[in-house]
Design brief:
The protein is α/β, with parallel strands linked by helices and 311 residues long. It contains 10 helices and 7 strands. The protein has a single domain, classed as TIM Barrel, CATH 3.20.20. Strand 5, helix 8 and strand 6 form a beta-alpha-beta unit.
């Protein structure tokens, strides 16, 4: 199988020669051109020959000039639907086009998205999220506007050559855990916009990345997607075997992203073998639970790629 055939067979639960394997790191590319960002991904791909190229999106969503807090409705009302000529979008689209030209049709390209609520607070400050319920209508209008822009972006990214989207959401994180919120906030300010963004990506491979720890999967269990990804090795999170019993979808994970850079290679191989036992050879993509550290050594990444290639 070529990479595209292997990837789609895994997503659809069909027989395949081996599970596809991928990995990704942040390249700190917010200050770079789209061409430079694409080149970093190309070098990473050429070095390790992943089955799937997950394109990081380190360009931060543009927020109104001078906005530093979300503690008043007036600031929230400054958000407007944005043109895709904004550098944050234009550069990422340039990166997708260059990757498609250089990689050809047989390598799947998955672009990275963040949920609309998160797009706001990850740029203004996660601690500012406490103000959102205090200004309900202004906050809903703000997030709705961001979602409109992101839906426009999804359409453009598809046209540029993206085969799917890795949507990272914080919606399942319970209150009391990092980035977590209560049920009411998740239900009103996160869920409707997550679902709308996923709907905009219908017809592509939608990878739902349920980020974090302290997860309430019931909040997101019915989200429309083809693949489920989360940090299955982190304490308190469901294992691949548990996810297999709960979701009738392709799973993505099995590798502890927090330890890959430090563990002996025999332990890494054993972890891959254990993940195979849990997930099975089909309907599974071998991957870290989330981003691996940018200082992860070459020998660890090569071990991941080479051993996964023998499954």
């Amino acid at each position: 199988m070529n990479r595209r055939e292997r990837f789609l067979a895994a997503v659809e639960g069909r027989p395949l020669d081996r599970p596809p394997v991928t990995c990704w790191v942040h390249f700190l590319s917010d200050h770079l051109s789209g061409e430079d960002t694409a080149e970093l991904h190309l070098k990473f791909q050429r070095e390790y020959d992943w089955d799937v190229v997950k394109l990081m999106n380190d360009y931060r969503y543009p927020i109104p000039t001078g906005l530093e807090r979300l503690d008043n409705a007036e600031g929230m009302r400054r958000f407007r639907r944005l043109s895709l000529d904004e550098p944050a979008f234009a550069r990422q689209l340039t990166a997708i086009r260059k990757l498609r030209r250089e990689l050809g049709p047989d390598v799947p390209i998955i672009d990275t998205l963040f949920d609309p609520y998160q797009q706001v607070v990850r740029n203004v400050g996660f601690s500012e999220g406490v103000h959102i319920p205090q200004h309900r209508q202004a906050a809903l209008d703000m997030i709705d506007t961001v979602c409109d822009t992101l839906c426009d972006y999804v359409a453009a990214a598809r046209d540029a050559g993206a085969d799917g989207f890795f949507l990272s959401i914080n919606t399942a994180i319970r209150e009391g855990f990092p980035r977590g919120v209560g049920d009411a906030v998740a239900r009103e300010f996160q869920r409707p916009f997550d679902v709308r963004l996923l709907a905009a990506a219908t017809g592509t491979v939608r990878i739902l990345h349920i980020h974090g720890v302290g997860l309430d999967l019931d909040r997101v269990r019915d989200y429309p997607c083809e693949v489920v990804s989360l940090s299955d090795r982190l304490k308190g999170n469901p294992s691949l075997a548990q996810l297999r019993a709960q979701f009738g979808k392709c799973l993505m994970g099995g590798i502890d992203e927090t330890r890959i850079q430090e563990r002996p290679l025999p332990e890494l191989r054993a972890e891959i073998d254990d993940a195979l036992t849990q997930a099975g050879r089909t309907h599974w993509i071998v991957a870290p639970g989330c981003t691996v550290a940018s200082f992860t050594p070459q020998r660890s990444l090569r071990c991941l790629r080479d051993h996964a290639g023998t499954l």
